[in-house]
Each structure stands twice: as C-alpha cells, then as structure tokens.
Design a protein that fits this description.
By secondary structure, the protein is mainly alpha-helical. It contains 8 helices and 4 strands, in the order αβααβααβααβα. It starts with a helix and ends with a helix. Bound molecules: thymidine-5'-phosphate.
C-alpha cells in the first residue's frame, strides 16, 4: 500500500501523505493511537476520536492547501480505513464512524479510494511499522472482520471505492492500479463533456 501509493503519487506528480501522520502533530497522534506502550486496551470510541483528530490535522494542514492550488494528493489511508477497522474490526459500525468523523473530514472527501485487497499472510509478511503497530498483533478473526468491512464499504460507495487485487509483484499491482486510474480519468472526462 505504501509502496504503491508512492509510485502513484510520483506518476501523477501528486503530493503523498498518510494517515495518521503527515506532520509533527498527527505523527504524535499516530504514536498514541497505534503505539504499543499501553498495558490496557484502548477503548474503540477513544481510538476513533484519536484517528479522527489526526485526520482533522492532516486534511486541513497538509491536504487542503494542495487541493486549493488545484494539486493532487495521494493519501496512504483515509476515513474509509476507519470504516473498516473501527467500524467493523472494532464493531462501532459505519454510522458511528461517520458521525465521529464528520467534523474531522468536513467535506474534504477523496475523489477515488483504492482498496488493495491482499491475502492476509502476504499482507502481514510485507511490512512492519518500525515504530510498532498494535493492530499487527491482532488475530485472523480481527482482520477477517476488517476485510468484510472493506467489502461493505465497496458495496456502499461503489462509485468512490474500488477494489484492486493487491497480490503479486510490485510491477503487476502497479499496472492494475494504473489501469483503474486511467479508466476513471477517461470515464470522468467523458461524463463531464456529455
Ligand atoms: P499503516 O502504516 O500500515 O497504514 O498502519 C496504520 C494502522 O492504523 C493500521 O493498522 C490501520 C490503523 N488505522 C485504523 O485503525 N484506523 C484508521 O482510521 C487509520 C487511518 C489507520
């Protein structure tokens, strides 16, 4: 996901950012929300507010200034991650996730979301967050729920969220992502000109 989003940003001449993160403050939120330093489990609602807090900072301070200058942003994760992870993995449900995130997103929605759907074993073997990620300790059952969450998100937002097979080499996945982007751009330009 990080590899592909960086490749895509480069091809599009876009600014790359990630959630949670992107500046000093949202990086700090990231350390709190997905750090492994706590002995006790973080409540799901607290967790969602923290992701939403990081998101409010990244969207306003990193993403919006680029969009205001008609630039393009490629983001590694978004509010749709919250729908899958907190909504389904943690069981809050999509409506509560949307409610908590409404003010944080404040209309700064992506134009297109790509879900790289990758076999669990492959996904977990690919990378580890150097600073630790508490979710990497979760069991298969949790990731099964997250995957079902993404499927539901695709079903609910079919024009916005697209599934791409994330299995295979970097080059193969890169081609799949690019053909989706090319198709979307063609489709949107045509729709606008009709
Ligand atoms: P990443 O660096 O692999 O993207 O890790 C981000 C982690 O944070 C990943 O385990 C998913 C989790 N996460 C959420 O649970 N909710 C969110 O809204 C976001 C942005 C990330």
């Amino acid at each position: 996901k990080t590899t592909q989003s960086n490749i895509l940003a480069e091809k599009l001449g876009a600014v790359w950012t990630k959630e949670p993160g992107g500046d000093e403050i949202s990086d700090e939120v990231r350390r709190v929300v997905q750090g492994m330093k706590f002995e006790i489990e973080m409540d799901a609602v607290c967790e969602q507010y923290l992701y939403a807090a990081g998101r409010a900072q990244t969207l306003r301070r990193v993403v919006k200034p680029v969009l205001d200058k008609a630039g393009i942003v490629v983001a590694d994760r978004s509010v749709f991650t919250s729908m899958a992870y907190q909504g389904f993995g943690r069981g809050l449900g999509i409506e509560r996730v949307l409610k908590i995130n409404e003010e944080a997103v404040d209309g700064i929605w992506p134009d297109l979301v790509i879900w790289l759907d990758t076999d669990l074993e492959t996904a977990l073997a690919r990378t580890r967050d150097q600073s630790g990620d508490k979710f990497e300790r979760m069991d298969k059952n949790f990731f099964g729920k997250v995957r079902r969450g993404y499927m539901e998100v695709v079903r609910r937002f079919p024009k916005l969220v697209k599934r791409v097979d994330g299995n295979g080499s970097v080059k193969v996945v890169e081609k799949r992502v690019w053909s989706l982007i090319a198709g979307e751009i063609r489709g949107r330009v045509l729709t606008r000109s009709i």
